[in-house]
Write a structure and sequence with these properties.
This protein is mainly alpha-helical. The chain has 12 helices and 4 strands. The strands form 2 sheets. It has a two-stranded antiparallel ribbon. Strands 2-3 form a two-stranded antiparallel ribbon. The radius of gyration is 20 Å and the shape is globular.
């Protein structure tokens, strides 16, 4: 196995793993606090990607400039959408099942809207930084005497990874150092107990919905920088990745989702280099099945009061 290709796969795995970590963490907050199976989470991410694409095509702005407006607008949209979509579900005998059906409908609606506005074609996100690529490492004699190999990464991926890391740090600080974040973690473990101590559970839930939507939107912007293209039908695979990550990391432990996202991304990308494509796609799900068998609560999962 060529050492350069392996290192290239490892670097790619870290970049995509950080993206997966944000997907899993945002979905974990929504599922944990609201008990909502958000099948439309992938479309929330795609909406962020298309927002960046629209800014690029309409205003000529680098997708990086879309991060702040997407975070604000998507939080407000998510906060308001909670009161439209969720409160009635909480009174259902099976809120998870009801929310799955509702959010599946939202997913189909968003796919239709995105396809109507942007059509069904994959849209390239044509932008660049200066320099376009950065050489991270030079491997001497990788291809024979005097033939060095270089581990090269697009600058856009490095910038996206830096923004991603800042978001992960900010999210961790919010969940573990602020009263609202601690209340969200408490609601994940026992929603009824949170109401008993006098916390406005509807405001908390709306904040969680808005936060998860904002993170999903920003993740879409970063994804457009990493790929870089946008597919109107690419939402369901992203939602599937999110569910895989929260199962691996453990429902009720957002940091577990962060670790699981990086693990899943590294395994996927390195396996793509080392194994045939079909086997590489299968390996991540083999790990998922193994975790379900031997540690159903996930890597860092907590027992959740139902």
């Amino acid at each position: 196995m060529n050492e350069v290709l392996l290192l290239q796969g490892l670097v790619g795995g870290i970049v995509f793993g950080a993206i997966y970590a944000l997907i899993g963490a945002s979905l974990n907050v929504m599922v944990g606090v609201l008990r909502v199976i958000n099948f439309a989470h992938g479309e929330f991410i795609l909406a962020g990607s298309f927002f960046a694409y629209a800014m690029l095509m309409g205003l000529g702005l680098n997708p990086l400039y879309a991060v702040a407006p997407v975070a604000v607008l998507f939080f407000l949209a998510g906060y308001g959408a909670y009161f439209v979509l969720i409160p009635r579900l909480q009174r259902s005998d099976e809120p998870e099942t009801s929310s799955f059906l509702l959010m599946f409908g939202v997913s189909l609606m968003m796919i239709a809207v995105l396809t109507w506005i942007f059509e069904a074609d994959i849209r390239p996100v044509n932008f660049s930084f200066d320099p376009i690529n950065v050489t991270l490492l030079v491997v001497e004699d990788a291809y024979g005497p005097g033939r060095d190999g270089r581990v090269i990464v697009p600058t856009a991926r490095i910038v996206a990874l830096a923004v991603n890391a800042l978001m992960i740090i900010a999210l961790t600080w919010f969940l573990y150092r602020t009263l609202t974040g601690k209340a969200m973690r408490a609601a994940i473990m026992n929603r009824d107990a949170v109401q008993i101590v006098g916390i406005d559970v509807h405001h908390l839930s709306a904040t969680a919905f808005g936060l998860a939507t904002a993170i999903a939107g920003v993740t879409g912007v970063l994804l457009a920088m990493v790929v870089p293209s946008v597919d109107p039908n690419g939402g369901p695979p992203l939602a599937l990745v999110g569910f895989v990550v929260i199962v691996l990391g453990g429902l009720g432990h957002p940091v577990g989702a962060l670790l699981a996202g990086v693990l899943f991304g590294v395994v996927e990308q390195v396996a793509t280099v080392m194994l045939p494509q079909a086997a590489a796609q299968m390996l991540g799900f083999v790990i998922l099945i193994a975790v379900i068998f031997f540690r159903p609560s996930g890597i860092l999962g907590l027992a959740v009061s139902r």
